[in-house]
Amino acid sequence: MNSMERIQATIRGMDKDRCAVSLTLSLFGARLIQCPLETYYTDAVCYSRGQEEVLRHCHPDILFGPFALPLEGRAFGSDIRFMDKNPPNLKRPAWASVREMPRLNFPDLDSDPTMLYFFEAVHHMKKIHGNKIPIAAITLSPVDLPVMLFGIHGWLESVLFYKDETRKLMDKLVPYCIKKINRFMESGAAFVVMPCAFANPSVITREIAETIMLPVLNDTFRESKGPLLIHSAGAPLIPFLDLYYDLPGVSGFVLNGEEDIRLARRRVGPEKVLIGNVEGPTLVNHSIDKIEQICRQTLDACGDDPRFIFGTTGADIAYDTPVSNIQVFTKTSDAAGRGKLL
Amino acid sequence: MKETIQDHLFALMLKSRKDAAVQLIAQYADQYGSEAAVIHLLEPALNRFGVIWAGQENVSLAQGYIVARIAEEVLAGAAAAKPVYIGQKKGPIVIGNIEDDYHDLGRKLVTTFLRAYGWQVVDMGNDVLAEDLFDQAQSVKSKVIAVSAMMYTTAMNIQKVRQVINRHGLKGKIKLAVGGAVFLLRPELVDEVGGDGTSRNALGAPELMKSLWEAADRL
User: Fold this and answer.
1) CB spacing of B108 vs A281 below 8 angstroms
2) Are B52 and B136 in a shared domain?
3) What integer pLDDT is reported at residue A341 of this predicted model?
4) How many residue contacts between A and B have a Cβ separation below 8 Å?
5) Which of B60, B97, B183 to mutate to test the interface with A (most CBs of A within 10 A)?
């Protein structure tokens, strides 16, 4: 079985040779090809080359497009900062709040260099790897895109105190996000992963989730031409899974580190893919033995779930993580085979 | 059991009803005075909210933010007559997001609650170098530097603050408080970056500063 067949079998809940492995190695490709990060996050060919090395050294079953969400903020006018060993960071948002935004100029998805970089990176990877391994795009959902326009503070303030302006903004963001998701699909993405911090119980209340975020996600996903995964964005998602599990087009969820996969399965039913649940950035500090122990425990507990994909969650695996620490995932899954570890 | 006015305020905080909460406290202040409103109404509700926030009982960032705004508006209103805060005036605390970190919401919440509890705060903003935090603490004679970081990678820059404090022979005399989302996920990071203490949420910051300040005083 190749990775594409393994992931497709997982989505359909069919038998496979081993549990599929998802490793968030967008950043790590830059290290493997020793590419300066500003180049890596602006040159789609360099990015694609980095991901070829990721596949060669780390053997994941999914390759990710650029996981560099602040870049999209720059396309809207926010300032970002490129880092030495981390993805770019939002330095200064374009506006302080939704009320201070005189008008919203959307980047042209056919000509904006930043947005073209995202699409071309996916396109290059698809061209190289064909149907051997799925390519997943990672992009901002309409509920988190405003973070890159106003910052977390400004967006929270908008959601809490300027509801009419927030709804008007969302009315504009939804068609843009639909078009963006569909461009990723046309570029060769097998699915699109959308971090949704502002759909998460650690950030918003259930009332806000139900009255503001859920309708927006529903409107966006209904028009999207391809499978979507909701990413927990660094905080536990399970308490709100009942709100999101039947959103149109959503094939599954990327859970937060150490969230209870079996509890999540009960909440979403048998049809959805669940990805989890080892916190990727922590791998840099663990010994190989410790990582192997975590992997074995996770696979032992959930490896027989037909729609479970085993791997890392949260942010990117850190730049300085030893390659051997990452390789443990696929090795352990290989050793576990079809069912539980022997 | 009859709902007290304190229960009512607490319920409004949980439901994120800022305007109703501020109005309730204002009405109480009209009847009993601003200081009484802060001491008998706002402070107990804040303390109670802090307990459930620390216990992680489904308290969201949005709820914490609303409570900070309630405290800010009430104290600003009270201060129009005369400065009012909870407890005695103390500090100053020097606070900032560490080098390379631009996630300022946590820092702003901490600053709001520290000021509500009577702490003077020197807020140095985002992306502050370790040396600048230290120099400011020296300049205003602060015994606590509070540093925020959201991500693991930027949190590691806090080590530089620990190094500069130690290099000047002031370990223990200037305490290092650390905070931010990453410390909730990875509590072991507090030791790793050389922190002297942390708080699970912004409302726990006044108590943390008090204990660190007193510990520095003992040396």
Assistant:
1) no
2) no
3) 41
4) 67
5) B60
Domain membership of residue A224 (yes or no) is yes
Query: How many domains are contained in chain B?
Result: 2
Inter-residue contact A93 to A146 (CB < 8 Å): no
DSSP one-letter code for B39: I
Pick from B16, B58, B153: which is nearest to A85 by CB? B153
How far A78 CA lies from chain B's nearest CA (Å)?
13
Using a CB-CB cut-off of 8 Å, the residues of chain A touching B186 are: 282
Report ipTM (2 d.p.).
Answer: 0.91
Q: Does A321 touch chain B (CB under 8 A)?
A: no
Picking from A277, A195, A279, A269, the residue whose alpha carbon sits closest to that of residue A232 is: A195
Of B62, B102, B186, the CB nearest to A208: B62
Question: pLDDT, tens digit, for every residue of A65-110?
Answer: 999 999 999 999 999 999 999 999 988 899 888 887 767 889 999 9
Q: What residue in A sits closest to B19 (Cα-Cα)?
A: A161
pLDDT band at B38 (very low <50, low <70, confident <90, very high): confident
Considering chain A, what is the average pLDDT of its residues? 94
pLDDT value of position B151: 82
Cα–Cα distance measured from residue A91 to residue A46, given in angstroms and rounded to the nearest whole number: 24
Domain span at residue B179? Answer: 90-218
The alpha carbon of residue A203 and the mean position of all alpha carbons in its chain are separated, in whole angstroms, by: 18
Q: How far apart are CA A307 and CA A10, in angstroms?
A: 5
- Give domain status of residue A79, yes or no: yes
